[in-house]
Write a structure and sequence with these properties.
It is built from eleven helices and no strands. It is mainly α.
Length: 251
């Protein structure tokens, strides 16, 4: 969109720019609601956002990206590269280097376009910056994946990384609880910190939440054989009561 606006005649850009400015104003109003509104008010804005811009964004961009990453993951598993990672160290090393180089290029290009934009005049530039960042997401993710897989091929590192295994076994519980925690921290019906934390504080918050979830996952799975929401999911799938038996009794 940003590239297209840069090549449009002025008479075509002006009405689009006005529309984008109005959209930015609505976004600013929504931010105030998220930070100060009650549950009903925030839910209404969330619904409006989802069936408006967010739904279109999901259909046009997020859905193809998710399908693509699922296909890549399926190929890595079916090809045996994940199960026999030690045999494919060279592959993951090359993938990590290439992913890091490509991600660094696109992220640097995105930052070069800018990191702060006037909502009324900088829409085109912000679209270019976000587009470049989105392109860099996939190679960066593959670089992360390669680093983790290579670490898992080292016995000492694999033992250290195994501490994260319980969190993976409770992925649904942890995923949904992250949404619950963040809504209570950032939305107006909770602590109302929406837009208040800087980047460094956000990173610290992410690590703190995930560390607490890892600890809770260890605690829960030491007593039960499956996570709480995972048990409910299985119960709904197989139409049977959730199995809440302690892990030792179930064994």
């Amino acid at each position: 969109i940003g590239w297209a606006m840069g090549h449009m005649p002025p008479e075509a850009v002006e009405p689009m720019a006005r529309e984008m400015a109005a959209f930015a104003a609505e976004g600013q109003k929504a931010a105030v609601v998220y930070a100060q509104g009650g549950f009903a008010e925030i839910t209404q804005v969330r619904i409006t956002d989802y069936f408006g811009f967010l739904f279109a964004n999901a259909v046009m961009f997020q859905l193809p990206m998710m399908v693509g990453t699922f296909l890549i993951g399926t190929w890595l598993v079916r090809s045996g590269r994940i199960q026999r990672a030690a045999e494919f160290r060279r592959f993951f090393a090359v993938l990590g280097v290439v992913g890091t180089v490509l991600a660094s290029f696109f992220i640097a290009a995105s930052v070069g376009v800018g990191t702060h934009f006037d909502p009324n005049t900088g829409y085109a530039q912000s679209m270019v910056a976000m587009g470049l960042m989105a392109i860099g997401n996939l190679p960066l993710s593959l670089a992360y994946l390669s680093a983790i897989v290579l670490l898992c091929t080292l016995p000492s590192a694999a033992k250290s990384l195994s501490v994260l295994a319980p969190a993976g076994r409770m992925a649904l519980t942890n995923y949904l609880s992250q949404s619950l925690i963040c809504s209570l921290v950032f939305y107006g019906y909770g602590l109302g910190l929406f837009g208040e934390l800087g980047r460094a504080a956000q990173v610290g918050f992410v690590f703190a939440v995930f560390a607490s979830q890892v600890a809770f996952s260890h605690f829960w799975l030491s007593r039960f054989g499956v996570g709480p929401l995972e048990a409910l999911w299985r119960a709904g799938t197989y139409l049977q009561a959730p199995d809440w038996k302690p892990r030792k009794s179930a064994a």
